[in-house]
Amino acid sequence: DVKVTQSSRYLVKRTGEKVFLECVQDMDHENMFWYRQDPGLGLRLIYFSYDVKMKEKGDIPEGYSVSREKKERFSLILESASTNQTSMYLCASSLLGSGSNYEQYFGPGTRLTVT
Amino acid sequence: AQSVTQLDSHVSVSEGTPVLLRCNYSSSYSPSLFWYVQHPNKGLQLLLKYTSAATLVKGINGFEAEFKKSETSFHLTKPSAHMSDAAEYFCVVTDTGFQKLVFGTGTRLLVSP
Q1: What is the mean pLDDT of each run of 10 residues along chain A (115 residues)?
Q2: Which of A8, A36, B23, B109: CA 20 to 30 A from B41?
């Protein structure tokens, strides 16, 4: 069965801390994604990776960076957490392909609170 | 740029009555379209997808959606709501290049007994 796991379900950090969110997929997918989800705004893409060590900015990359050293793992980094980064963070993966392969598989999410 | 508009932020129905969640899309090409569902404190799960085969698409749990190109719509329906259908639903379109998805803002479905 398809699986995307995220390192934490809930996380509380202080302003200015460096925060790492980890995501692992076991489906050998080329593409991996980080989104943040806020009420009334839906999901917004932060960063996207289509291969190891490759990354592309999404719609809201400011204040975030990413790392993909292995195909199955995609990390989101908040260099200096701020209160406006309090949100639900969702990781997803998909095959590099066409048609129904555009389907993305999601992890359970990490609810991050920055105080 | 591709976009989706979910016309209702909240929809309330009684158990056993039909469900209609509305979605309009904007795309400069023939897109793929999806509906995802998110139950409380859970990740997103694919409900159904349209990828230019049949225009009426059947999904899990009795949901279906019809792709109407002339109306640029992809509304989600279910004949009879169940309490377990209470969740947030997202209409999604593929972005240019087809590797990324563009999400609507979501519709929260409330089901009362």
Answers
A1: 88 97 94 93 93 91 96 96 97 77 87 97
A2: B23
